[in-house]
Design goal:
It contains no helices and 20 strands. With 232 residues, it is an all-beta fold. Strands 1, 2, 3, 4, 5 and 8 form a six-stranded antiparallel beta sheet that branches. Strands 11, 12, 13, 14, 15 and 18 form a six-stranded antiparallel beta sheet that branches. Strands 7-6-9-10 form a four-stranded antiparallel beta sheet, with no helix packed on it. β16 and β17 form a beta hairpin. It is elongated and about 60 Å long. The protein starts with 13 loop residues before the first strand and ends in a 9-residue tail after the last strand.
């Protein structure tokens, strides 16, 4: 029997997880516990919680390259969520506002702890009632008319991760100076000299914004699925 493996792309502390789970995070950056035998997502991401149908913060945690008989208890803030094993080594952990302690206990003496801080409303999706679509439905235009985004994601190799991921193209619809961010993280700046931005999507919901100083904020929402894709 073959068990899930993780392929190293950088240091032991920050790596890229490939195939560690069939759930939300098929490709994401993770951190390895002090034991060297467990892992958790590097940061919390937003995804639709199937139990509530609400976009909520979550991480994945589990066994790192488990042996056949590996087992561990997964806990959130001291409450046991489930028992991990080689056949099912990864689980989704939905986080609450404030500080969250995720632990993977291999035994009474060996426990790896990961701490995540969640701010209130961190995963609230912006409303985009003024946005409109092109006649052929391929482009979504911001209410301000200053930017527009491709509707259907493509698939390409992301050079920063070395993985194939879904992407969309964001365009400056004029000579505007637009600061582009994805899920609150600055990505690039668009202008007349650079009117297009390639935006790779992570797992779950992605909020893409294009801010024109204090004048306007364009918002778009795209679902990145598992965060990975297969080239045609």
């Amino acid at each position: 029997m073959q068990f899930p493996k993780i392929l190293f792309t950088t240091s032991a502390a920050l790596i890229t997880a490939v195939g560690v789970s069939t759930s939300t995070f098929a490709a994401t950056t993770v951190q390895i516990g002090n034991s060297g035998r467990t892992f958790a997502s590097a940061v919390a991401q937003c995804a639709i919680n199937p139990a509530t149908g609400v976009n909520s913060p979550m991480v994945q945690a589990g066994l790192f390259n488990p042996t056949q008989h590996a087992e561990a208890d997964l806990r959130l803030n001291g409450v046991k969520l489930k028992e991990l094993e080689a056949a099912a080594p990864v689980a989704d952990v939905w986080l609450a506002d404030g500080s969250n302690s995720v632990t993977v206990a291999l035994s009474k003496k060996v426990t790896d702890t990961y701490v995540f801080s969640v701010t209130s409303g961190q995963c609230n999706l912006p409303t985009t009632p003024g946005n409109f679509y092109s006649a052929d439905g391929t482009m979504e235009y911001a209410a301000s008319g200053k930017s527009y985004l491709t509707v259907v994601p493509g698939c390409a190799l992301n050079p920063s991760t070395g993985l194939t991921q879904p992407f969309v193209n964001l365009f400056d619809n004029g000579s505007f100076l637009l600061n582009v961010s994805v899920n609150g993280v600055p990505l690039t700046q668009m202008s007349a000299l650079r009117p297009r931005a390639l935006v790779f999507l992570s797992a779950g919901q992605n909020v893409i914004t294009a801010v024109n100083g204090g004048l306007s904020t364009d918002s778009f929402i795209r679902d990145g699925g598992t965060g990975s894709c297969v080239l045609p």
